């Protein structure tokens, strides 16, 4: 069985459109779990009224995407978890059936990264292409990757749990990056599948400047502390932090940058306790993926 997990925050009209598409899926057994992250709008009431068959979980306080997705994954009963952000739609009514077929045919594959298109169904959603290869050459190709977008994906649930699920300390942004690294570090693999398509409607809530000016510079540091060996952590952090500082100065966000650095410093002791550097073999696999190689 497939467990569809949908985190939702303040997007009642979007989540209703997605649920309509999910329940139009054919040829698959599924359960649908929506986790509302303490929305101030009418999301909870509308979902209960329009889709009473949904398993609806409501956070007592806003926890962020990582916390919200993890709650849904913990509640899932299926052996496969398919995750959708609430601002996507699904043009293919056989999408979940294709996911199921893929996992049956590829028993060693841990996760499937979906192809994300803009609402026109033709243009690539380039801001969410963080794969290690160029979008122009690989968007319509199948390849092993070190990344997936939380916007639309599928994983074997047991492997997600084993990898620790989404790192909740990050709150939002880069949480998929770390989870992908952990999946690979435990010997798993993620396959980009161009035939698995979701349309991303890029709701304004997901474009908050807070992501750019606070979470990005902070979480780049936290990711390095959590995952990378000493020297590689320094090599990763220094150029990125310098770039973010210059960008903050140019954009008038120096206070936000300082706030991000302060937050990273406050979380540093806790992260040191949780720190688990990636194995050398994992770093080599990720390096090979950047060259378009199948490790």
UniProtKB/TrEMBL annotation:
<dbReference type="Pfam" id="PF00535">
    <property type="entry name" value="Glycos_transf_2"/>
</dbReference>
<keyword id="KW-0328">Glycosyltransferase</keyword>
<dbReference type="InterPro" id="IPR001173">
    <property type="entry name" value="Glyco_trans_2-like"/>
</dbReference>
<dbReference type="GO" id="GO:0016757">
    <property type="term" value="F:glycosyltransferase activity"/>
</dbReference>
<keyword id="KW-0808">Transferase</keyword>
<protein>
    <submittedName>
        <fullName>Glycosyltransferase</fullName>
    </submittedName>
</protein>
<dbReference type="InterPro" id="IPR029044">
    <property type="entry name" value="Nucleotide-diphossugar_trans"/>
</dbReference>
<comment type="similarity">
    <text>Belongs to the glycosyltransferase 2 family.</text>
</comment>
<feature type="domain" description="Glycosyltransferase 2-like">
    <location>
        <begin position="3"/>
        <end position="157"/>
    </location>
</feature>
């Amino acid at each position: 069985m497939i467990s569809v997990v949908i985190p939702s925050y303040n997007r009642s009209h979007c989540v209703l459109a997605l649920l309509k598409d999910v329940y139009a899926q054919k040829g698959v057994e599924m359960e649908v779990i929506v986790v509302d992250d303490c929305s101030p709008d009418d999301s909870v009431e509308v979902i209960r009224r329009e889709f009473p068959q949904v398993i609806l979980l409501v956070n007592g306080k806003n926890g962020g995407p990582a916390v919200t997705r993890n709650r849904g994954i913990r509640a899932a009963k299926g052996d496969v978890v398919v995750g959708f952000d609430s601002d996507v739609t699904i043009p293919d009514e056989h999408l979940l059936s294709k996911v199921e077929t893929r996992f049956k045919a590829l028993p060693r594959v841990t996760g499937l990264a979906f192809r994300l298109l803009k609402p026109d169904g033709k243009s690539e959603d380039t801001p969410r292409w963080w794969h290690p290869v160029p979008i122009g050459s690989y968007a319509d190709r199948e390849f092993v990757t070190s990344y997936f977008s939380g916007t639309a994906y599928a994983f074997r649930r047991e492997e997600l749990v084993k990898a620790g699920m989404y790192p909740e300390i990050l709150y939002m942004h880069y949480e998929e990056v770390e989870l992908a690294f952990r999946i690979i570090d435990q010997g798993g693999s993620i396959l980009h599948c161009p035939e698995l398509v979701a349309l991303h409607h890029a709701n304004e809530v997901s474009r908050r400047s807070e992501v750019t000016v606070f979470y990005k510079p902070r979480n780049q540091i936290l990711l390095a502390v959590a995952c990378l060996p000493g020297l590689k952590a320094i090599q990763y952090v220094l150029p990125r932090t310098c770039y973010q500082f210059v960008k903050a100065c140019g954009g008038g966000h120096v206070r936000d940058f300082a706030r991000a650095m302060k937050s990273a410093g406050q979380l540093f002791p806790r992260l040191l306790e949780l720190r688990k550097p990636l194995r050398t073999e994992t770093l080599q696999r990720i390096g090979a993926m950047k060259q378009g190689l199948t490790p």
